[in-house]
Specification:
Elements: E1 4-10, H1 17-24, E2 30-35, H2 42-46, E3 53-55, H3 62-71, E4 77-80, E5 85-86, H4 89-101, E6 108-117, E7 123-134, E8 141-142, E9 148-149, E10 155-164, H5 174-184, H6 191-203, H7 207-221, H8 229-245, H9 249-262, H10 267-279, H11 283-295, H12 300-303, E11 306-307, H13 313-325, H14 329-342, H15 347-356
Parallel strand pairs: 1-2, 1-4, 2-3, 6-10
Antiparallel strand pairs: 4-7, 5-10, 6-7, 7-11, 8-9
Helix pairs in contact: 6-7, 6-8, 7-8, 8-9, 9-10, 10-11, 11-13, 13-14, 14-15
Length: about 350
């Protein structure tokens, strides 16, 4: 059986690091911790799990820190986690089964990343990441921020998930500062970094600046839509959200139509188009698009990232609203109950249920 090195970079994670390491300690044969400047009890806590703790001077570059952690690994495969990640029991069992079957023929294993979960640990936003890598292939992280490993070699995707349980962000401007320093130093951003820079502005609610960056990005790569699809699709949806917030609804719809020009739209795009018609009280047209969203469910294995709420829950809630205003209370109640089966404690579902009674 092949052995696994767990490699992590940490800083001031005393509130979550035990939770992470407890979830993986029976899987990893070696735990490598690279500390980038903790001033709390992180290293003291980590020392209860491993003596392989290394200091790394922070230089505003996540890829350098992660590559340093990888350089300390000695086992056959490398698993990487963040301090606020955990492996839930069901996934740990699957992971242990995978470990027993490791024979070295696969270079890189992709796994789901449950980036956002509800109160019952049910995923709502799922991504796919290169997660378990053969050490001898010498994989390298690239990009100082939103670092990534480019998957190469023999790749397999497995039905195992890492679950992200995010704590409060310590420095909300950290990522943006790194981008701004890169730009200030004359570094040219690649397509992925251009998209991520726009998204940082969007997440920080600096919508006017985000709009300018998204517009520039989409104009630059629109003719290469299929080649840049993973970033273009997300950028278009996020730009449409920015237009919604600043109340530029014509631009909002025209932006979403770029997706329709290039592919069959996924559930999130269909929902966002439906919401425009719902807001305009064009209920029958909105119903068409919400039904289309259900039909065009996003496949996370195929597409990489998927906000699962848009597959069924959000369309059902919106169909409930549409039929309510059309006076079809029976159908409105039916769709609300379908949403409730997915999220029985959701406040919107419970509010609708009370009104519809």
């Amino acid at each position: 059986m092949k052995e696994i090195s767990l490699c992590m970079i940490v800083k001031n994670e005393e509130n979550v690091i035990s939770r992470c390491l407890d979830s993986v300690k029976d899987l990893a044969d070696e735990i490598i911790i690279v500390d980038t400047g903790s001033t709390d009890r992180t290293k003291e806590i980590v020392s209860q799990y491993t003596n392989k703790i290394y200091d790394f001077e922070w230089v505003d570059d996540f890829s350098k820190a992660r590559n340093f952690s990888f350089s300390k690994a000695t086992k056959d495969y490398i698993l990487w986690l963040d301090a606020d990640d955990v492996i839930l029991e069901t996934d740990l069992k699957k992971f242990k089964n995978l470990k027993e079957q490791l024979d070295g023929t696969i270079d890189l294993y992709k796994m789901k990343y449950n980036y956002i979960v509800d109160e019952n640990n049910n995923p709502t936003l799922v991504q796919v990441r290169a997660r378990l890598l053969k050490r001898s292939k010498n994989y390298k992280w690239i990009s100082p921020i939103h670092e990534v490993i480019i998957p190469t070699g023999k790749i397999e995707q497995v039905d195992i998930a890492i679950t992200h349980k995010k704590e409060q962000v310590k420095d909300v401007n950290r990522n943006l500062k790194i981008f701004e320093n890169m730009i200030k130093n004359g570094e040219e951003l690649d397509d992925r970094q251009e998209y991520c820079y726009a998204k940082e502005l969007y997440c920080l609610k600096r919508y006017e600046e985000a709009i300018l960056c998204y517009e520039k990005f989409i104009k630059k790569y629109e003719k290469e839509y299929k080649l840049k699809r993973s970033y273009m699709y997300a950028a278009i949806l996020e730009l449409a959200d920015c237009y919604r917030i600043v109340e530029e609804n014509e631009k909002r719809l025209n932006t979403l139509l770029i997706i329709l020009k290039n592919e069959i739209p996924g559930s999130e795009c269909c929902c966002k188009i439906g919401e425009i018609f719902l807001e305009n009280k064009e209920y029958n047209t909105a119903i068409f698009w919400f039904n289309q969203a259900i039909q065009n469910k996003k496949n996370v294995e195929q597409d990489g990232d998927a906000n699962i709420d848009y597959n069924e829950f959000i369309p059902y809630i919106n169909l409930c609203v549409c039929y309510y205003w059309l006076g079809d209370i029976e159908k409105s109640y039916e769709y609300n109950e379908m949403a409730g089966k997915i999220k029985p404690k959701d406040q919107t579902y419970l509010f609708n249920k009370n009104i519809l009674k």
